[in-house]
Amino acid sequence: xxxxxxxxxxxxxxxxxxxGAIQFLTRIPLRLRSxxxxxxxxxxxxxxxxxxxxxxxxxxxxMMELVPPLVAAAVAVLFGVAVTGAFHEDxxxxxxxxxxxxxxxxxxxxxxxxxxxxxxxxxxxxxxxxRVACVAALGPAVAFASLVAAxxxxxxxxVAVMGVAPPVPTEGLGADSSRALSPRRAxxxxxxxxxxxxxxxxxxxxxxxxxxxxxxxxxxIMARRxxxxxxxxxxxxxxxxxxxxxxxxxxxxxxxxPLWWA
Length: 262
Description:
Elements: H1 15-25, H2 38-41, H3 45-64, H4 69-84, H5 87-98, H6 104-112, H7 118-136, H8 140-164, H9 173-180, H10 183-201, H11 205-227, H12 232-253
């Protein structure tokens, strides 16, 4: 897209929300003439998640034809980290570090620190290890479908938390976006995540969604108690926890049930 037109107003074409979501969540070099309306882009987060999941799944399927599954899974997961710029992993790491604070005020200050401590590094590495192990345990078709669903539902869980959980009582991109996000837009994003997941894995979407929902509830409750609400970093943690839980459930389901389209 060499010469993009100026973004339409909020009542205009919804496609600009998709472009804004791609620009915000990935390192794909999209250049828009003005900053996107993040609240309008939020409902598109699960769609971008599906795109990232399909790209990661495609790499996994291709690599499994060339190298052992564990190597293929590692390359695919790290490809996803590169595409997103470790955006959600960074949020998970910051959240883990901040949990070591002694008060909500101190924890919120730690969230603003871009440096990572031992808790953050351990959480980030743990997330990558879990995802690599899960993808390696899945066959090519199941890995592709499950990665699409995991990335979609992980971001859908973050949208749901933005719609229902109170933001932290400080300024910040994530907190400000949560305040600006309407219930209708949040519902649209969550519904899109459910539909995409159902198309990719069929009835497996039910346990997948339950796993992502449980993870998001736990993280949201912890954030409410530890920080006084949710922020952008905490939403990244919600996405990572949801993605990992979905892939873990996929490894159990594939031992007992076939994928609907495989």
